[in-house]
# Entry
Amino acid sequence: MLKILRESLLNAPIVQRGKYYYFIHPISDGVPQLKPELLEEITEHILGMVSKDFDKIIAIEAMGIPLATAISMKTGIPFTIIRKRSYGLEGEIKLSQETGYSKGELYVNDVKKGDRVLIVDDVISTGGTLVSLIKALEGIGAVVTDTIVIIERGDGLSRLKDMGIDVKTLVRIDITEKGVSIEDIHD
# Structure
């Protein structure tokens, strides 16, 4: 299972930014092109892993969007996007996020007390974005029923587990100048 995801990761181009090796992948970058069969495989796998007890899907801009779209279309459940810019809407919540290679602000709109949410994202490295988001959602009074991330890299998942936050992933990878190696895949 997850054969398409596995093959696409093993064939992902690698670029170096400073001392950081970065993989280029359709799920994390939108390039090379995101083929429907990869998205279909991932979506089906996600739906087999998560509780169906949610009434809203939360996607983090930008690459959480295709994942949330596919899940929404399969389930009929709406999604909202955690954006990288403010819209100034009533109730908008600003949160600071830090990843392994950037810092910035994210904005939460259209999440209300009592919403039961599924969070979906493309990659977890440090876990900084998810920590900030989950704290913000809990502050609103939303209930996070599941959090699922496609690709795990680095120590972010163990950091979140140490904080009592459960995050499911499909695949754990490592990256060197030679390419992506798959450490674990959750078939």
Observations:
- Residues 3-185 form a domain with the Rossmann fold fold (CATH 3.40.50.2020).
